[in-house]
Amino acid sequence: xxxxxxxxxxxxxxxxxxxxxxxxxxxxxxxxxxxxxxxxxxxxxxxxxxxxxxxxxxxxxxxxxxxxxxxxxxxxxxxxxxxxxxxxxxxxxxxxxxxx
Length: 100
Fold this sequence. Notes:
- This protein has one helix spanning about 5-10; strands at about 15-20, 45-50, 55, 60, 70, 80, 85-90, 95-100.
- The chain is mainly beta.
- It has one domain: 10 Kd Chaperonin, Protein Cpn10, Chain O.
- The strands form two sheets. Strands 6-7-1-2-5-8 form a six-stranded antiparallel sheet. The protein has a two-stranded antiparallel ribbon with strand order 3-4.
- The longest helix is centred in the first third of the chain and has 5 residues, at about 5-10.
- The chain is elongated and about 60 Å long.
- The protein starts with a helix and ends with a strand.
């Protein structure tokens, strides 16, 4: 799953780069819901991971890997735009679960 974005953004320490998974557009009662009124998705796919964090002078490796589909907190991380693509950079501890 080599992604051009993953090679241009390399997170540091225990951070991961996530591409949000778009939910299918829903129409309720025939009304169109504009993008600005939709909630941000809280699940995405990891496109890059950092090397891990140091604890007591030893590197603790990441438990996540590129390609994992994850759930994350609603207000977690920092949004960045790279190559016209919106990505989210968050700490490993802000990932709530891996979707199997």
